[in-house]
């Protein structure tokens, strides 16, 4: 899964409104960010095997550190602790840590739906996966459902300063679906390293775009907190 992972990122922004959207967009792809780094370092392994599934040519035969159930739980805890430490002393930092950790773990849950049985429960053993990648139309529909379902939740929980404030997010989400189609039906990457580098670059660019768009919206919980601090500061 690719585009659909961002749906929980959108939704988590509505739940934990003081967690920046760019953080959540990196969180929902954090396991894949680590996977890209580990592939480049030779710690995890992947082969390019066109036809191994109907929509994804990657044979993800060794990724126990990032995509095992145990690994996903570990990295979710780590990400939550890192965020909580970064925001220590700020309003709702504890809740934000839980939100970030949950966003990281959502990646494994959604991967379980689409991967063939290549997700280990621990180490590199007892691999699971429901294999929706072998069914292009349902797989793409699921990506779109999660993505735009999360976007709908996000847009309902925030306000735009003008009537066209949702347009940027709609365009971004349509671009994500376009990238998903390219992943499904485009040419496979030439090498595992190329797949990892492309993934890392796309995650950084998408998080940057989402952060810029998010900064232009009004978040009631965040804005209420800012207003309270401003009132206290002027002695009203």
Tell me what the structure shows:
- The protein is mainly alpha-helical and 236 residues long.
- Helix 2 (21-28) packs parallel to helix 5 (93-114), helix 2 (21-28) packs antiparallel against helix 8 and helix 4 (69-86) packs antiparallel against helix 5.
- The model is unreliable at 225-236 (pLDDT under 50).
- It is globular.
- The protein has one domain.
- It has helices at 6-15, 21-28, 30-41, 69-86, 93-114, 136-157, 167-185, 192-214, 220-234; strands at residues 45-48, 58-62, 119-122, 125-128.
- The protein is built from nine helices and four strands, in the order αααββααββαααα.
- Strand 3 and strand 4 form a beta hairpin.
- The strands form two sheets. A two-stranded antiparallel ribbon has the order 1-2. A two-stranded antiparallel ribbon has the order 3-4.
| Number of individual domains | 1
Number of strands: 4
Query: How does the helix and strand content classify structurally?
Result: mainly alpha
Helical run tally: 9
- Ends distance: 51 Å
Q: Please, what is the average pLDDT?
A: 90
The stretches of 5 or more residues where confidence is low (pLDDT under 50) are: 225-236
Shape: globular
**Helix-strand pattern, N to C?**
HHHEEHHEEHHHH
Strand order of the largest sheet: 1-2
Radius of gyration: 19 Å
How is the main sheet built? 2 strands, antiparallel
């Amino acid at each position: 899964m690719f585009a659909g992972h961002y749906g929980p990122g959108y939704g988590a922004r509505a739940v934990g409104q003081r967690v920046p959207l760019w953080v959540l967009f990196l969180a929902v792809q954090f396991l894949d960010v680590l996977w890209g780094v580990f592939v480049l370092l030779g710690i995890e392994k992947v082969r390019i095997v066109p036809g191994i599934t109907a929509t994804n040519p990657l044979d993800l035969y060794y990724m126990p550190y990032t995509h095992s159930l145990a690994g996903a739980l570990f990295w979710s805890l780590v990400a939550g602790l890192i965020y909580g430490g970064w925001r220590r002393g700020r309003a709702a930092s504890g809740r934000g840590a839980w939100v970030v950790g949950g966003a990281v773990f959502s990646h494994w849950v959604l991967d379980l739906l689409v991967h063939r049985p290549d997700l280990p429960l621990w180490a590199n053993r007892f691999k699971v996966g429901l294999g929706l990648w072998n069914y292009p139309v349902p797989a793409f529909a699921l990506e779109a459902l999660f993505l735009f379902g999360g976007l709908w939740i996000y847009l309902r929980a925030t306000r735009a300063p003008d009537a066209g404030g949702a347009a940027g997010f709609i365009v971004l989400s349509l671009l994500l679906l376009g990238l998903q189609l390219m992943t499904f039906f485009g040419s496979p990457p030439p090498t595992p390293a190329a797949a990892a580098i492309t993934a890392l670059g796309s995650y950084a660019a998408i998080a940057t775009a989402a952060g810029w768009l998010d900064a232009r919206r009004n978040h009631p919980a965040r804005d209420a907190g800012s207003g309270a601090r401003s009132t206290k500061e002027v002695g009203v």
